[in-house]
Amino acid sequence: MMVSFSCNADGYDPLDPNGNITIRWDVLQENDDTTQDVRISIVNYQLFRHIELPGWKLSWTWPGDEVIWTILGAEATEQGNCSAFKGRQLPHCCEKQPVIIDLLPGAPFNNQAANCCKGGVLSSMNQDPGKFLAAFQMHVGSGSNNGSLPGIPGRFNLGLAGYTCGEPFQVPPTKFVEDQGRRRTQAFATWNVTCSYSQFRSSSAPTCCVSLSAFYNETIVPCPHCSCACQTQAGSQCVKPGELPPVLQLPHNEPPKPVVQCSNHMCPIRVHWHVKLSYKEYWRVKVTITNLNYVKNYSEWNLVVLHPNLRSVTRVFSFNYKPLNIYGNINDTGMFYGIQYYNDMLLQSGENGNVQTEMLLHKDPGIFTFREGWAFPRKISFNGEDCVMPSPDDYPRLPNTAHFLHAKPPSSFIHLLLLLLLVV
């Protein structure tokens, strides 16, 4: 029988500077029948990249003939061939390479474990600190009665595009807190597996782009041509105005490839940055995120912006905002994300397929300017994916006279002033 622990682990670093996902393998108990109770935790230490539906699918390769007898908080997708166990209860999984998925929210209580049952979805540490950890427990043993304990598996895989996992390495045993912090216990042994992310491994093309505009220029700078794909490119799928997306033809057992509105950039996500107003001591920006994908909603989306004036953000409307001091005290990066139950879901392409905010920023003396494209962001990412920016040469320019910044008195007033001086 599996031992169920309801305590919380405090052995995790508060913030991993590498921004990785860590798989932690804790041996909680070794039993006389050469079985073990283990707890597996998946911890998302990334600052703003989260795991969306359909969620993680954790797999590994056993070193021998190990089997999973029982499991809490997750389940194996395949039981495998358990014909060697005749006349007794069959193991939960006999696969050499089991694939484990998270239980859905609302799973039966007697199947749950602490920090389970999120459907494989993990938030980032900044966006929702209560949902960046997933965990489940297993009772594992050897498939043959050779009297040996189960070994530590290898070749871990999260089942997520862009992620690569290393080999397990032993670390100090994880400590657990009980009785409201008055008692500590610890695992028999602990191994960590580090999984890193690469956008180039995740996708061969970008997934978002940025367009720009400003109140002082009539030019709207669109997303660069073919930012994410070209309409004539093989495999590109887009929907022209008046057409219906081929929803019924899409696969239902795997994430569908984007089906987007036909455009020059062919990106599922477009971010528009508009310099809206200029006051005496402040300036105002409007940001609009538009979902052009007909087959996907973006839950718990986030937008990360790099701009030197973000250190002087005065107010943000309709979005949550957190500064990201990635480089020590340099506060030029911030994360925007939706308000729960209001606009934290970016719906698929249509009338409601956009979210927008406005923010008020203070004009820092000696730094602020509208010239040379300074008012536009240096970098933008959506859900952790870098967006394609327009060329700086194309940014909206100030008019040559720049009347709104340096208002000059009319010439008739100057002539009158000179006349008065002559008379005096």
TrEMBL record:
Membrane disposition: Lipid-anchor; GPI-anchor
Example of a GO biological process term: cellulose microfibril organization
Keyword Transmembrane: no
Pfam family, one: COBRA
Keyword check for Signal: yes
UniProt keyword terms in alphabetical order: Glycoprotein, GPI-anchor, Lipoprotein, Membrane, Signal
GO cellular component, one term: plasma membrane
COBRA C-terminal domain location: 207-396
Subcellular location(s) per record: Cell membrane
InterPro entries recorded: COB_C, COBRA_pln
The family this protein is said to belong to: Belongs to the COBRA family.
Protein name in UniProt: COBRA-like protein
